[in-house]
Amino acid sequence: MQAQQNETGNLQELTRRQLLELEREKKTKLQLWLDLIIWLLPFAAGIVAVLEYTQIPDNSMNRNPQVYLVFLILLIVAYGVYSVVSLIALRAGNRDIIDKQRYRAPLFSALFLLLAFYDYMTLKTGILTQPFVPCLNFVINAAWSDRAMIIDCTLHTLVLLFEGYFIGVVLGLITGVTCGYSKRCRYWVDPVIKFLGPIPTSTWIPIMMVVASSLYGGAVFIIALGSWFAVTVASMTGISNVDPEYFEAAKTLGASDRQLIFRVAIPHAMPSIFQGCTQAMSSSCTAIMIAEMLGVKSGLGWYMNWSKSWASYDKMFAALFVICFIFTIVTKTLEAVKRHVLRWQVGVEK
Prior knowledge:
CATH architecture of the largest domain: Orthogonal Bundle
């Protein structure tokens, strides 16, 4: 049986690839040259960023100028490695990687040009006043010199984030599944959700600073509360929208209440549940920054507030970039998990 399923899956994957090959129209020479230019455009944009940084005179003092130059070169080299991998895959008959690179090439080009523009507005001309808006070389140097504290604050932020997030998600799943399946439970919980839902997460921070026995526990509660609300509403909505005919068919086959919940209700509500988990992460990221800035004595939010108090704006921007990078990785991870779990859905790519 397992062998038959694997054979069916391979046949479906092969059919999908064959369809993609058939859908690709044969391009003209002009279109091929245009694709090549766009594919190579990030190299040109990277060289523009390097020339802008090295050839235009600085408007202010620039300590350790080679650091940002090495950063730009590493980005160009990374794109070059990506290109080599794409070409190797293309020679092996796999066009997917080079097609994705062609699609992302304009974004990579825009990134290099944005870096050049930002450096021109800060270090080269001073239109964006320093040190309040530091150039990227200042930011990278600050992040490297204070890397020990940034790493420590990052670990504290991640522990606080995931502790509050997972508590809220687990409780939200329990509440949402119960209320979505049972009208009696929904009767009692629905008013609470409608009452707490419109209240912003930041509103609870002053209350938690007074009521909570510790600032850390209060921050966990605030993050968990926002996650709980998002997951509860999404799970309850998803299970409520399951076609009643599925439950009737399962009951006819002798399914118990437990099987109705775990084999029918939850699988069909998974798209809504994952949507709620994504919204919960967004809410948690906002709540953790506010909580750390106002109360918690460690973390990236606290580090930003502390740097601002000492007028170390380069360190503040370094922490800001770390926050953006971490939350981007977390969001991408959630999307990857969602695609993997929901790969059975039509229209969801593996």
